[in-house]
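Researcher: Predict the fold of dTDP-4-dehydrorhamnose reductase.
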Amino acid sequence: MKVVITGANGQLGGALQRTAPADLEINAIDIEDVDLTDDAMLRAYLAVEAPDLLINAAAYTAVDKAEQDEITAQAINADAVAVMAEHECKLVHVSTDFVFDGQSSRAYKPEDARAPISVYGRTKAAGEDHLRDTDLLVRTAWVYEAGGANFVRTMIRLMSDRDELGIVSDQIGSPTWATGLASALWGLIEKGANGAYHHSDAGVASWYDFAVAIAEEAHALGLLDRMPAIEPITTADYPTQAVRPSFSLLDCRETREILGKPAVHWRDNLRLMLKKEASLV
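Model: Structure tokens for dTDP-4-dehydrorhamnose reductase follow.
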């Protein structure tokens, strides 16, 4: 089976390539291969390549920048998805917790009403609207991977340079290791899943909780020479251009049931990621 993966150089795109079943013909592309803001280029590429399966792991994820660059965010997060959905093959599309407003009192279910509160969230929701009944939508949150550009690696860099950090403690969700997400995607594909699903690692955390765990695990692995002081702050203390959902927990029970695998706690996957990160140093 011929598979095209977009976002080849991203965290998830790389993880999908590393975890792909050996019997698949993988063609992973990124901006230097096909510009997703160019509908004609993308349409021509798919016509020539004619994949049996298309996994869209590409996205405009610069949440704050998107507030002033909605045209590009719309082109990549929505318009390109519309072009992908024109192709006859199955489309697997990865979306985000940002399609919700963060006001729920429980974990968001795949069928819950969306109410995005940022340009990033609105354009990702618009991309979801182009999917067909035979396609697969998987929403995730707080993704990180060894060697990537993400919260974990940013925290390690800042912790190495500073004696004290203030980290937001009133935004709640669950971190997601890209390697685990990739494995879940391949599992859902193997099961022939269609429709909407959620995947994130088990457990609940604030960004503050996540940062404290990063410090502890990184220090234990020798990635940090010392433990910095980490203080909880509020969202109001750290204003950003884009509004973030205050509650991003995703209900992943249907995903775990169809895969038939127990959930892995986010801290266990963080430890695995940091061991890989240590091997890159």
